[in-house]
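Record 1 of the preview.
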Amino acid sequence: MNSAATLIQELSELSDDQFHQKYLKQKQGMHALATILPQVEEQSLALRAIKLSLKVNLKLGSKLAGKLKPEFQKAALKLIAKITISPLLKIQLLALTCSDMAIPMLVKALSHKNSAVRVHCIRAIGKIGSPTAVIALARSLESEDSQVQAWAAWALGEIDTKPAAWALVKALNHKSGAVRAWAVWALGKINPKTSVAALLKALKHQDSEVRWRAAVNCGKIGSDAVVSRLIDALRDENQLVRARAAAALGKIGAIEAVPRLIELLQDRDSYAVSLRAAEALGQIGTETAVSGLLQALNHDDSDVRGSAVSALGEISSEVAAVAVMRSLSDRDIFVRGRAAVALGNINTAGDDNLQQMVAAGLAIARGDSESYVRWRVAAALGQIGTEEAVAGLVRLLGDDTPGVRQKAVKSLGQIGSPAAVLALEAALNREVADVRALAAQYLPDRSGEVKTVYFDGEAAADLSEAKLPHILIASEAEASEYIIDRAAGPNLQYLISIGTPGAPEPKIFHKVPNRLRQSFNDLETPVDDPDRVLPALDDVLEIIDFALKISARPGNLLVCCQSGISRSAAAALTVCAVLTGRGLESEAWALVLAARPQARPNRWMVELADEALGRGGKLSNLGVTHG
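->
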């Protein structure tokens, strides 16, 4: 096998054509070139290799430029700078070099008039990720451009190294409140082993905004190390810090925080603190926590009482059930409605006594004078799904309020048991027309054939290829209706649902055999609210992996988010791009538009998908905009 010295000597002797044949035509040759270039001692020879590589493949040439000896890289980068291409592509190529020599060029471009260029420059510096890049990003936190600040913080969090953490810790003491906010936000993205000490220190920061943001991030970490400090924060002079610390302790499930959380139920400064304390006690769910929630049922504020009722519904004990039943007579209709929902959430499996208590409570609520409460009862009975629940829903079919009657029909369709089907068949003979019409929709097709039901525009898609599934894009509410459709629901094999962080997946979604559940907000740029989550590369990679499973065994796919317009459309576009293959990005976008004409895919998700699939901007440059 030729030594590196021999290959380097040979480089100077090869003609351009010979160089191309040996090193640029096959992957093996490219790999060999990447191995020997760092050892080339002659600048002219190294630059010749880069020039020839750039002529064949701009990305390959850029990557190789970063492999040269450091003293040659500046000259190699000038070769890239001279290429006549769009600013965004040039930034991408500079990022591919992973060279510190590219950083000054990228920093200079931060003054570009186009905001997209400025954002891509910051992201490119983040991709380089070196200590020099960290310094540049730390300086960019001080930019007057809020977008540059945001992406600089994001990039530091993505680098996730000790130098990046140190830069953010230093920024916590910046004179600008905005910079401090971005710094503590980004610390929440860094590995806890590196960031936890800084976040614990931030809980004592003189700026209350830094303190409450640190409390939120400590709740995400969830280690024992943060619990005692968060309990201390429950005594903070600032009500927002107390509220966020309570929420963080509830998320962690810190039993030792229960006594102090019970005290906060009577917080004199803010009912919002009491509200978060009640929610936290429900998440912790111990007997001691239940006693605190029982106290909260007597709170003057109806929101606090309602939160306590909802929390008790998640605990599933007889004591909790009795307390929830008591709230069915609360003076506030929304508390009574939440009590009905809580009864539906109580897990009664294997406990006959608890089942009877829940059934009795919902029977009482079924007679409430307010239609809102009765509607909630119909929804709760649909969640329970027992024969007793079916009997309760049959009674609600005769309700005076159309909305209650219709919800009862839908809940029967959701249950789908033989008893529920019999109830729907009987409803076809009801005097009220809306009950008859809706019941017919939720019954199986009487011809014995399974209907295929599409959302508007979906039928226009040409999905004749065997590997492509029928793709449906919907809001979460539409998706629930589709899944419980007795004719079309059984055809559904795959579901991608994207929810708001912290929001549970609707129980009805479990009827779909293959599911991917994701949680992030509809964001296209970082926001300095630690409760809001920007889609990440890992989220897009999960969608790609799920698409590959669909490719192996095609079946109907439903993709949904809150409105069925942005996040779900971006996820569907990613799936279509995987299944249609490289070079057919426009066809993938046409499939999405056919399934959901109002689709406006989340641009950040599409950009991540473009990068993950190596489409070179063909996805992100489709003209897709978010409205």
